[in-house]
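Good day; I would like, with your permission, to put a structural problem before you. I would ask you to consider whether the tokens describe a fold that such a sequence might reasonably adopt. The full record is reproduced below for your convenience:
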Amino acid sequence: MALASSEASNPHWTRRATAKDLAHIPGENGPPIVGTTLRLLRDPPGYSAHMIKQYGKIFRTNAFGNPQVSLMGAEANELMLFDRDKLFSSEQGWGPLLNLLFPRGLMLLDFDHHRLDRKALGIAFKPEPMHAYTLEMNAAIASALCRWRGDMTFYPAIKQLTLDIAAESFLGIPLGPEADAINKAFVDMVQASVGVVRAPVPFTKMGRGVAGRNYLIGYFGPQIEERRRNENRQDMFSQFCRARREDGEYMTDGELIDHINFLMMAAHDTITSSVTSMVWFLAKHPEWQEKLRTECLAIAPAGSVIGHDDLAKFELTEYAFKEALRLIPPVPSIPRRALRAFDFMGHHIPAGTSVSISPAYVHAMEEYWENPKSFDPMRFTPDKVKARHKYAWVPFGGGAHMCLGLHFAYMQTKIFMHHLLTTTRVEIAGGYKPEWQAWPIPKPKDGLKVTLTALSA
């Protein structure tokens, strides 16, 4: 489980704090080699609750071969995500988990490098291309939902749909025979992020993840030059290929491939998780499903194309989506590394400390949320949002690293919900309660068994 190769290949990284450096912080080391990894993976919320009860909101663990400190609470979220003093490195936080998979993805960049690449990539999320994506989404979603009837397993179906939408919007092409191989590559890369063995050993999660990355390099690489030359192509990848930094230079081929790999993964894996959890809660709470259906029909009849200008009208739908993200955030934990020593809540955190916050835990803390386990979209009315700590809800991160595609996620979810809820009723069997895999991106272990019944005109 050693991560020494990550450190050795990145000599600019701050020396990682050792267990001895962190001995003054209360916590647990766990057994040799595996440390606290298995306990964390088995039940992340339960383990966090145990640690907070034992040691308070700041505690030490030893997961994935890495001694680290967890900072819990909205104040900790603000400290790390807003990062007004530039204390934290995202590259060195995510790097030990992802640098063999997405080494130059936007989430793994810091400060000026991150700012310049984010600005260059942001051209694909401006109003004009976003208007174009809505038309593609409407067509893909309406076509898929015509085939979704009766008893079905929701998660794999929505995963295929979001991959198809990502391919149309990001790549500008429908996926052909390579679709299954691309999907497998992304699945393997995501699963590798929480593999116990951190080297790309054959037949391990990391080995399969690195093989997936190599497949995508071979798929995307040969397309870059043609997309730079062809000004008529307006998909995201083509715009990224033509984007220039402030110095007038293109991003390198390697940087482009890592960016598109990361954004494609985020655009379909995290949205798949979020839409699945929202459908689960709406099936479990049919009264809310009916409220959203009424709102959707008031905006446009069933089968209608939802335009970009219609999206702001989906008020209750947005509240319900936010509540689903609160209860099951697609990124349960966010790591960083401290570049300098700092003090927080009475604890001295040395330079080089691997630190993390937990959106999943903070989203369920009673000091911010009344009856936190209940599904209540009205928590997100403007007055309640204003009265709550700004960093009590952080499913998209925050600060400079706020998710670049969050508006794409809202757009896709609203369009999907309109087409779904105005044409079908979503139901589950009485007493059904799927078990959820918490890491690395939440999903129902059985795929979520639902029944879709067509609504009469």
